[in-house]
Amino acid sequence: MTALVASDISRNFGGLQALSHVSLTVEAGERRLIIGPNGAGKTTLFNLLSGAMAVSSGNVLLFGRDITRLPTYARARMGLARTFQITNLFPRLTVLENVLLALQAGDQSAFSLHRRMRANHQLFHGADALLRKWDLTAITGKRAGDIAYGEQRQIDLILAIAMQPKVLLLDEPTAGLSAAEVVRVVSMIRSLPREITILTIEHDMDVAFELADRITVLHQGCLVVEGDVEAVRNHPQVKEIYLGVD
Q1: Of 23, 87, 115, 240, most Cβ neighbours within 10 A?
Q2: DSSP three-state, residue 7
Q3: Distance between CA atoms of 67 and 70, rounded to whole angstroms?
Q4: Residue 150, Cβ neighbours under 10 Å: how many?
Q5: What is the pLDDT of residues 132-185, one digit of tens each?
């Protein structure tokens, strides 16, 4: 089954074409890596897929349904979740409260306006289970703005998982992390079930090659190479434009 299809999508900013006629097909359960140098159009692609930005041309399908004109929240309701380069937490709320809000957003209780959140034991059980699974219960009561950056990145990933996505877009999940933190986040991503289709933007080539089933390479807003890990690793154009090989 095909999870996500982008057909000939482009995005223009006045006279600047940030993304030019890019097409890709991602199968259900696939781990697709999007790589390329700075300014290649990677985040623009994610913005178009997630609905954060409208396409200038082309269309996007999610499990066969055209979502090109749907807003971000509607795509999220259909199972498309995303993380960002910068953490997207509520810094004044505790870690637990952040996770509870994410769980509530993906649950019908989000519309129970006359029911206190603390009355929903299922939400608390779900939040506790997620934090225990990733060994993060020690920071449950801390404000999200006070925990270490590496922990914030892990919580950001947990919030996306809490939405029970069918397709998950990860925008540089290891950016700014120490070597030990990178290992932990990569382990979290690798342990996610194959029921979740994952697209990841990644600058660290070691991480990219470790996570990928297939890799899409962007350069100057265009798709230039696509294939499995070995095909991309050994492609002369990739070495030239991305790895800095003359």
Answers
A1: 87
A2: strand
A3: 5
A4: 17
A5: 999 999 999 999 999 999 999 999 999 999 989 999 999 999 988 999 999 999
